[in-house]
Amino acid sequence: MYKAFFNLAHNPFDLTPNPACFVPTKRHNEALASLYYGVRRHKGFVVVTGEVGTGKTLLLRCLLQLLEDSKDIGYAYVFNSRLSPTEFLQYAASDFGLSATGKNKGELLFELSQFLIARNAKKMTTVLIVDEAHDLSRDVLEEVRLLSNLETRDDKLLQILLVGQPELDAKLDSFGLRQLKQRIALRTHLEALTLDETKTTLNSVCRLPGPTRLRPLCFL
């Protein structure tokens, strides 16, 4: 109905995160820059949190678009965080293109370490991206911390991005996960658009010509 009435090219109320609908507010640009900088500079751990609907998954889709344009970066994207430690490692290894079926945790860690060492020798960057990270159990978060031990004398072999709701902040700030918190290099929190940002966005939408004029509304 909306597309026909307003002569739109895309549905402005689609719930699927689409990088073309990204609204570049100051804090969202900073969060995207932190993710990209953390990957490129091999910072190890980067964490982004935010309430439901603040654009976390969309931010990741924008990052993935940037990473896919870089031939030297490979990544695994874990979006189902309700896994056991072994299931988590199997999922990550499979997404990296490794054979994980039927292997125990020790075998998976050996496969991952050899994979990361080989890529590092070729000056290639490897990234583990975890969406909905607030649902990770403490055991899995500890496993993620141990993955960060895969390093050379000068560099981290695996860059780890954790993205989730504010419950993730609460877990990371807990006493039991203080070792993981100590390793976080960059940490960003997303907020909803302010009134001024909303007005600016709506005004810019009205000025954009043709079917692109409603693109920013996809984010809202």
Quick take:
With 220 residues, this protein is α/β, with parallel strands linked by helices. It has helices at 2-6, 26-40, 56-68, 85-95, 105-121, 138-147, 166-172, 178-182, 195-207; strands at residues 45-50, 73-78, 125-130, 159-164, 184-190. The chain folds into 2 domains: 1-23 and 195-220, no CATH class; 26-192, Rossmann fold (3-Layer(aba) Sandwich), CATH 3.40.50.300.
Question: Which SSEs are present, and which pair or pack?
Answer:
Elements: H1 2-6, H2 26-40, E1 45-50, H3 56-68, E2 73-78, H4 85-95, H5 105-121, E3 125-130, H6 138-147, E4 159-164, H7 166-172, H8 178-182, E5 184-190, H9 195-207
Parallel strand pairs: 1-4, 1-5, 2-3, 3-4
Helix pairs in contact: 2-3, 4-5
Task: Explain what this protein looks like in three dimensions.
The protein is an alpha/beta fold and 220 residues long. It folds into two domains: 1-23 and 195-220, no CATH class; 26-192, P-loop containing nucleotide triphosphate hydrolases (Rossmann fold), CATH 3.40.50. It has helices spanning 2-6, 26-40, 56-68, 85-95, 105-121, 138-147, 166-172, 178-182, 195-207, and strands at residues 45-50, 73-78, 125-130, 159-164, 184-190. It has a five-stranded parallel sheet with strand order 2-3-4-1-5, with helices on both faces. Helix 2 (26-40) crosses helix 3 (56-68) and helix 4 (85-95) runs parallel beside helix 5 (105-121). It is globular and about 60 Å long.
